[in-house]
Amino acid sequence: MQVRENLEQIALSAFENTAESSGFVVFKGQGCNNRLPLGGNLYFQFGDLRVDTDTSHIVIEVESAGGITNLAKYWYYITDKDLSRIIQKPIILMHLYRQVSHSDYGSHLALWDFVWEEMRKTIGDKIQAIRYTYRNISDLDPAIQYFKSSILSH
Predict the structure, then answer these.
(1) pTM value?
(2) 134 neighbors 35 (Cβ within 8 angstroms)
(3) Angle at the Cα of 141 (from 135 to 57), degrees rounded to 5?
(4) Residue 144 domain-assigned?
(5) 8 Å CB contact between 51 and 94
(6) Is the distance from CB of 104 to CB of 67 less than 8 angstroms?
(7) How far apart are CA 89 and CA 40, in angstroms?
(8) pLDDT band with cut points at 50, 70 and 90 for residue 118
């Protein structure tokens, strides 16, 4: 039996180590301290990994199967008048897409770019978002540097 790799955790480990070595608490997983409630028993996960600084929420979302849900959920949450009060600080969102080949998720990435441009028009400075693609963990070095500069400057 082949052991299944947790690709998301592998990608997140360098970010987690960076945050913790800089003295920040890391939030991740589905626990109650990493949720954006929707009402009743419904919620969004507040990032695959999140670091809260004095001035922002720095959030990492990792995709290994494409999609833009992890971008669109913040648009929904921030623009809903009842829900938006819960997020008190701007979000810096880093969205990581794992690719096996250069063309993997091309349509998802094009849709991400489109949705992000539309989001920026309606929610302005309440969120910054950037996406990265990677094939190997070493491809994440620019994202890790951006993450480190974000947590240290906020």
Answers:
(1) 0.92
(2) no
(3) 105
(4) yes
(5) no
(6) no
(7) 24
(8) very high
Note the pLDDT of residue 138: 92
Using CA atoms, how far apart are residues 38 and 84, in angstroms rounded to an integer?
11
pLDDT of residue 101: 81
Helix (H) or strand (E) holding 64: none
Strand ranges, E, within the chain: 27-28, 35-39, 42-45, 49-52, 57-63, 91-98, 127-134
Q: CA 103, 109, 111 angle in degrees (round to 5)?
A: 130
> 3-state SS of the chain: helix, strand, coil percent to 5?
45, 25, 30
CB 68 within 8 A of CB 60: no
Apex CA 29: angle with CA 124 and CA 21, to 5°?
80
CATH number at residue 80: 3.40.1350
Strand 35-39 to 42-45 pairing: antiparallel
Strand bridging mode 91-98 / 57-63: parallel
Residue 55 located in a structural domain: yes
- Domain total of the chain: 1
